[in-house]
Each structure stands twice: as C-alpha cells, then as structure tokens.
Amino acid sequence: MDCCKRSLWLLVCLASAAGCARSDATSEQVSNLGTLSQAVGTPPDSLQACVTGAPCAMPLIAAGELHSVAVKSDATVWAWGDNRFGQLGDGTSTQRSSPVQVSGLTEVSAVAAGRWHTVALRSGGTVWAWGWNAYGQLGDGTTTDRSLPVQV
User: Fold this and answer.
1) At 2, phi and psi to the nearest 5?
2) Which segments of 17-149 does DSSP mark as H helices, in order?
3) What is the C-alpha separation between 14 and 21, in angstroms, rounded?
4) Cβ distance 117 to 138 under 8 Å?
5) For residues 140 and 17, what is the distance between their CA atoms, to the nearest angstrom?
6) Where are the beta strands (DSSP E) in the chain?
7) Strands 117-122 and 77-81
8) Which positions ≥6 away from 4 have C-beta within 8 Å?
9) From edge to edge, which strands make up the β-sheet containing 108-113?
10) Minimum mean pLDDT among 2-6, 65-69, 72-76: which range?
C-alpha cells in the first residue's frame, strides 16, 4: 500500500491492521535526526517513515524495542538508543542518546529494526544485518551477536 502523499514532508506509517497514520513535520525536523523523535512523537513497536512518494514497503526509519535507526539523505545509516547486543552497528555495546553512524554502510535504500537487531538493504540489492542473533535472525549462518553489519 502506498500511504505517502506528495503534500507531506514526512509520513509515518504504522504497521498494523489499522493502516497508516500521518504526521506532518517540518523540513528542518526531518533533516535533523536529533529532533525527529520530537517531530513524530514516541515511536510505536513497529514504526516506518516514508519520504515523499516512497511506498511504505521501503522504510527510511525504523524503531526496535529500545533503539531507532534511520537512513539519511546521503544513504548512510544512523542509529541511537539501547545497544546491549550491538544493534546500533557502531562496533560497541554502548548506549547512545544521539545518533551514531553505522560502520561501513553506504548506499542504503531501506532499513528495518527487530527487537534487538537491525537490517539494511543496500541499493545494489545486498542485505546487511547486526545486533542480537540468538536464533540466527541475522542470517549469517551463526548465532553470534554482531556489533558491526554482516552481509546476509
């Protein structure tokens, strides 16, 4: 379903049976990751944001249980929040209250966040994952947590 409207700076799509809800945000708020949470409020469990004209199937921001991740206009990935399993992708397990760049990822076209892991789709079609991996959810053939992105 394409729930993005050309008249909006930012459309927030809630992944639920209720469909999509929208939230207008100023271009200044959208360009500043630090104020994005103020623009859209407290994120629900499964939050996806779409830029103008993009379908909700291609999220540019996602929220896990206690962390958030976003793709900036330069196609780099930035994350913040809880990091106990490396879900921020910065090579550490340090909690971050401000966005940090995910190490080594460029040309990213979409992101998704699970409870304690994160996944990104690069424009060339490769998938990368990091964070909690107790059940093999990262898809790298192991059950080892990863604090840096690994190709699926």
Assistant:
1) -95, 105
2) 27-31, 33-40
3) 6
4) yes
5) 31
6) 11-14, 47-50, 61-63, 67-71, 77-81, 96-101, 108-113, 117-122, 127-131, 146-151
7) unpaired
8) 11, 13, 50, 51, 52, 53, 54, 55, 56
9) 108-113, 117-122, 127-131, 146-151
10) 2-6
Predicted confidence band of residue 81 (pLDDT cuts 50, 70, 90): very high
Whether residue 87 contacts residue 130, with contact meaning beta carbons closer than 8 Å, is answered with yes
* Closest by CA position to 64, among listed 115, 120, 2: 115
Angle at 80 between CA 74 and CA 84, to 5 degrees: 135
> Number of C-alpha atoms within 13 angstroms, CB side, residue 152?
17
Q: Which spans in the chain are helix H? A: 27-31, 33-40
Higher-confidence residue of 33 and 64: namely 64
Average pLDDT, the chain: 73
Contact 86, 140 (CB under 8 A): no
- Residue 92 has a CB neighbour count (10 Å cut-off) of 14
pLDDT 10s digits, 82-122:
999 999 999 999 999 999 999 999 999 999 999 999 999 99
